[in-house]
Design goal:
It contains 19 helices and 14 strands. It is α/β, with parallel strands linked by helices and 475 residues long. The chain has an 8-stranded parallel sheet with strand order 1-8-2-7-6-3-5-4, sandwiched between helices. A 6-stranded parallel sheet has the order 9-14-13-10-12-11, with helices on both faces. Helix 5 (126-134) packs across helix 6. The radius of gyration is 28 Å and the shape is elongated. The two termini are 44 Å apart. 36% of the residues are buried.
């Protein structure tokens, strides 16, 4: 059975190990496409050659770097018609810093035999490769990657079928412009290709150094946020009437500062209001950045604390908060949707699955860091979380903490990123929006994708595009 996948790719995945070989910076969509192509043998149906050569260069660079990391000599074979060899050679060398050689009947057999050991990339014809293998110029697992141009020839070419039946590469990728579905599916059967991936779209002239995913929150989230926002507004109005300079724009830090000043005055009635206002704002933050499962955990912890026999400071405020009929109804409502996962966490899991290892996640919120770490480990993903600010660590200290990152540990969570982390990572995911993180990520020169996850129709989205319009780090 052949699976058809259609991808409209208009811009640019590649790991840290091979990126220095490329003559261009791959866009995020190209890198995600690469992750799909490398997973199983496939046929790429394309329309624009420029687009194709970029994808080929990404794929070739990936396999060359993978072989070098294992201290073996990388080998790539590109099969095409004789008249198309120079075109493909130019297309690949325009995008990749790698020497390419061409084989055909005009090259003496002894020279070809030597070339198989001297060059990483060989462009040849199916008939030439078939004859050279029979002459034992190379062994069956000599090539890690075989790319077959004009893959529709697999329907009738005995030489191609011979190569597929006798050689043992790690990956085979077919290329075609053919539109006949029956012919393509027959070619896939003969060449043992499992997927047909269609790519299209021109490459944009401008590329963002930082990209983003806009993720819509479920409607149930907005229902809860609207109620919490009204509760917040009521309490702010109460504080304002008591002479405090607060508004709907007041930050959690500002409310915490007022609460601390009231502790010194021992003003119990107002302390109850500021304590519970902080809890409402915390619930808003949890919904926006972590979702219902985390909010349920937050409320359960409060209920557990209240069930303890021993007295504690702030018990009166907590009793009032949990006894509020609106909070009780909200808790019942949230329990109905306890499995409604946050779209950011779903996207993180998808990207970790796409990139498989060396994923850097940045969040300057320690609660989010803990939340992400727990969820990744719950899904069986090896993770380290560096609690200290990266800037407070000496280079040698950071290197020690990152020692297993990319090999034994798949994900690293930090409060920001730098070139040291970027050189080890295959992608940097910014979980929340912060001006300092935006500027830091944009200053990183390592050509890997840097992606912000932002929730639609929230303050986070407004902040992201405000920074973009200001030109603070996003180009």
């Amino acid at each position: 059975m052949v699976i058809w996948i259609e991808l409209d790719v208009s811009v640019a995945k590649i790991s840290k190990n091979q990126s220095h070989k490329l003559k261009f910076t791959p866009a995020l969509d190209e890198q995600i496409l690469l992750a799909k192509i490398q997973k199983q043998k496939c046929l790429i149906q394309y329309r624009i050659e420029e687009r194709l050569y970029r994808i080929l260069s990404l794929l070739i660079s990936l396999y060359i770097s993978a072989e070098k990391s294992q201290k073996t000599i990388p080998r790539v074979l590109i099969l095409t018609k004789r008249q198309n060899q120079d075109i493909i050679k130019t297309g690949v060398q325009d995008n990749l810093n790698q020497i390419v050689t061409i084989h055909n009947g005009q090259i003496l057999p002894q020279a070809r035999k030597m070339d198989y050991n001297r060059f990483s990339i060989v462009i040849s014809t199916p008939k030439t490769v078939k004859n050279d293998y029979k002459q034992e110029f190379f062994v069956k697992d000599h090539f890690s990657l075989i790319i077959i141009d004009y893959a529709e020839m697999g329907v009738s070419s005995s030489s191609l079928r011979y190569i597929i039946n006798n050689l043992e590469p790690n990956q085979v990728v077919g290329l075609t412009r053919e539109k006949n579905v029956i012919k393509l599916e027959q070619a896939c059967i003969n060449l043992e290709l499992l997927e047909i991936i269609k790519i299209d779209g021109k490459i944009g002239k401008e590329r963002s150094n930082i990209q983003h995913y806009s993720l819509p929150l479920p409607k149930e989230y907005f229902f809860v946020l609207d109620i919490l926002n009204q509760l917040k507004k009521n309490r702010l109005v109460q504080l304002e009437s008591l002479g405090f300079g607060v508004s709907m724009k007041s930050t959690p830090q500002e409310i915490a500062a007022i609460h601390t000043s009231l502790l010194n005055e021992n003003n119990g009635k107002i302390l109850v209001k500021t304590a519970n206002l902080q809890r409402i704002m915390a619930m808003q933050r949890i919904v926006v950045s972590q979702g219902f499962p985390a909010l349920i955990s937050f409320l359960d912890d409060l209920l557990l604390r209240l069930s303890e026999d021993q007295p504690f400071v702030g018990r009166k405020a907590l009793v009032q908060f949990l006894g509020n009929p609106i909070i009780k109804k909200l808790y019942e409502y949230i329990l109905l949707f306890s499995d409604l996962e946050h779209p950011k966490m779903k996207q993180v899991l998808k990207l970790v699955n796409d990139y498989e290892s060396a994923v850097s996640i940045v969040t300057n919120n320690r609660y989010n860091a803990t939340f992400i770490e727990e969820n990744l480990k719950k899904n069986g993903i090896s993770t380290i979380c560096i609690a200290q600010p990266v800037s407070s660590l000496k280079r040698i200290q950071l290197q020690k903490k990152l020692f297993a990152f990319g090999s034994k540990v798949h994900v690293c969570i930090t409060n920001t990123a730098n070139d040291l982390i970027a050189n080890l990572a295959s992608i940097i995911i910014a979980y929340d929006v912060n001006a300092d993180v935006v500027e830091k990520l944009n200053s990183i020169t390592v050509p890997i994708p840097k992606v912000f996850l932002i929730t639609k129709q929230t303050n986070e989205e407004a902040r992201f595009f405000h920074l973009k319009n200001l030109g603070r780090g996003i180009r």
